[in-house]
Fold this sequence. Notes:
This protein is 61% helix and 8% strand. By secondary structure, it is of the alpha+beta class.
Amino acid sequence: MMNFAQFGNDLYTGRRSIAFVQRRKLWYSLSAVMIGLALAGVLLNGLNFGIEFRGGTEFRVLGVTNTQDYEAKAQDAVGEAGIPGSVATTIVGGDTVRVQTEAAQAQADAARTSLAETFDVQRESVSSTLIGPSWGAAVSQQAIQGLVVFLILVTIVLALYFRTWKMAVAGLTALLHDLVITVGIYSLFGFEITPSSMIGFLTILGYSLYDTVVVFDKVRENTAEAFRTKRMTYADAANLAVNQTLVRSINTTVVALLPIAAILFVGFTMLGPGTLLDLSLALFIGIGVGAYSSIFIATPMLVQLRSKEPAIVDLDRYVARHGAKRAARDAARDVGAGEAPAGVPVAVGADLTGAVGVGEEPTATLHPADVGTAGADGAPRPIHKYAQAGPRNQPKRAPKSKR
Length: 403
């Protein structure tokens, strides 16, 4: 059974290939479904913004020994204090109840007393924090400004580094793809969006960009070689680049996700809601989505954007016209070196140590047994160009003239 290292080596050398570019319509369809679900979640469910964005008062009841029916108890307690509307309650760390209400500065003291009596704790064990909506609006504005500046800088850097705006467009498309799907997942599952989540969103955009740039760098290297040698099309060279960086992308993603998964586990089971949990959740979702886009979206879109360029069209036509002849010459050269498998078509009468000339079509099938006898080094000797067919395989000599 082939191990993962051998599989990655085969992908790098081209012995195996996954058609990432050629099957781009399939990847686009999968992304369209995910984006559609994300947009539907945002439109139907909306986004669950934290108290830092909408404003309000947060109470924390420490040292709760009986958390049974804590939601109903908290609702009744703040209602008795005169705070209208519904409340959001969460267990934090196993013995702390977090209660979020509308802004209630005047009723804060009464709410603390009522919560302490309801959960049978000291009044000093109940803390309150008032967060005004203006602070949340300022945070939202700064986050949007940071995102816009980030995208502008990314566009400029990619366009200058790769010397083509189409790579910048493909990279930005992958970034927006990651952002929309990540926000959609938050909406579908009702995860709370906090300032820590916003930091996580910006971080995953940077991670996704890093992974995409690594793939694009290999694409640029392979396509430059394709233009020089004219041995493969632009799409094939780009697809080879994705295959060559696939194992690296998978390894990097797994290594990054493992510690984040550990933090998520601790946050959900022990710590509860907080900065650490919000940040790790955003990173875990975004890094997974970013790895997908750098492999399945960015490079296929780049190939599609550049497919109509005259230089690429000429390269594809040249490879399509001369590719079969070059393959025949390479096969003949491999047979001459004693490396071809049985059934490789080569030209009879050609010097097998060289290549079949351009325009010469293979006319027969040569097997390794027909190559000739082994030399001193054990390698098979090439057939002499005037050799006659048969087991002896000796060159034909002209008869001596009689005197």
